[in-house]
């Protein structure tokens, strides 16, 4: 199984670029998207004719043109559920869970704390509740959770840790603590599992030529239940794919 996760920063915008060409070349079994910025119907209208071999599932925010997630799967899932079942969190279309025979695939677009850190408290509540949600699924079968977690976990995960630590959204200690909670509760960072201390980023600011200079952050992850670790044959960050301020991340399972 080849699974891709990609924050597309607007499905309708990236569709006008090389998105479909890239997805057809990569030929993943499952494609998970974040920040689609579209309604369910708009996602399907944009994608269905270009990716006809996939079953399409999308989630939308109450606020138009904001947030949103999608899963495209060649194999039809046993079931698909949306959100966490928590009213406080379920208005922004940030979670989709697809159940397959021996694991769940969950895509998530974690809330950003914001440039003024106005959502930092909410972000902490989200992290705690999302971890409980994942552990609840895990009671039934293992989970592979992917997406934009909006946090660089360690100094190695961003180009300029010192000026950003406890000053910038995405590298506040409270956010780092949230990622620590995932990894200390049986969810394994698959890129670190396979690549140790390799330095690679998945997001770059549009400002200052950051991508050309590779002044980036690794904020997109595949986290796997410990029971899936032996099946992870590859974990990669696909820096050669453009069209968004993020690039895709991917795993392959035996």
Residue-averaged pLDDT: 98
CATH superfamily: Endonuclease/exonuclease/phosphatase
Query: What is the number of helices?
Result: 8
**Structural domain tally:** 1
State the CATH architecture: 4-Layer Sandwich
Q: Output the CATH class name.
A: Alpha Beta
Give the strand order, joined by hyphens, for the main sheet: 3-4-2-1-14-13
Instruction: List how many beta strands DSSP finds.
Output: 14
Strand percent estimate: 25-35%
Radius of gyration: 17 Å
The separation of the N and C termini measures 7 Å
Low-confidence stretches: none
Share of helix, binned = 25-40%
**Major sheet: size, sense and barrel closure?**
6 strands, mixed
CATH topology tier name: Deoxyribonuclease I, Chain A
H/E element string? EHHEHEEEEEHEHHEHEHEEEE
Structural class: alpha+beta
Structural shape:
globular
Layout of strands and helices, then pairs:
Layout (H helix, E strand, L loop, with lengths): L1 E6 L3 H4 L4 H8 L3 E5 L5 H8 L7 E5 L9 E5 L5 E4 L12 E5 L4 E6 L10 H19 L4 E6 L12 H4 L8 H12 L2 E3 H6 L7 E2 L5 H4 L2 E2 L2 E6 L6 E6 L11 E5 L1
Parallel strand pairs: 1-2, 7-8
Antiparallel strand pairs: 1-14, 2-4, 3-4, 5-6, 6-7, 8-12, 9-12, 10-11, 13-14
Helix pairs in contact: 4-6
């Amino acid at each position: 199984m080849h699974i891709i996760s990609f924050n597309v920063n607007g499905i309708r915008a990236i569709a006008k670029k090389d998105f479909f060409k890239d997805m057809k070349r990569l030929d993943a079994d499952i494609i998970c998207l974040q920040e689609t910025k579209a309604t369910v119907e708009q996602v399907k209208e944009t994608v269905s004719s270009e990716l006809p071999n996939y079953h399409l599932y999308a989630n939308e925010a109450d606020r138009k043109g904001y947030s949103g997630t999608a899963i495209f799967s060649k194999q039809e899932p046993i079931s698909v559920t949306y959100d966490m079942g928590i009213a406080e969190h379920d208005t922004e279309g940030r979670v989709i869970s697809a159940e397959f025979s021996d694991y769940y695939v969950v895509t998530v677009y974690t809330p950003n704390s914001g440039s003024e850190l106005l959502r930092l408290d909410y972000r902490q509540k989200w992290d705690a509740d999302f971890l409980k949600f994942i552990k609840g699924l895990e009671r039934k079968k293992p989970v592979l959770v992917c997406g934009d977690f909006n946090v660089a976990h360690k100094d190695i995960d961003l180009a300029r840790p010192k000026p950003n630590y406890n000053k910038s959204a995405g590298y506040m200690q409270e956010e780092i603590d949230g990622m620590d909670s995932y990894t200390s509760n049986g969810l394994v960072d698959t890129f670190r599992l396979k690549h140790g201390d390799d330095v690679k980023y998945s997001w770059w600011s549009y400002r200052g030529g950051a991508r050309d200079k590779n002044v980036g952050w690794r904020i997109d992850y595949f986290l796997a239940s410990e029971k899936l670790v032996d099946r992870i044959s590859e974990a990669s960050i696909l820096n050669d794919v453009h069209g968004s301020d993020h690039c895709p991340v991917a795993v392959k399972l035996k």
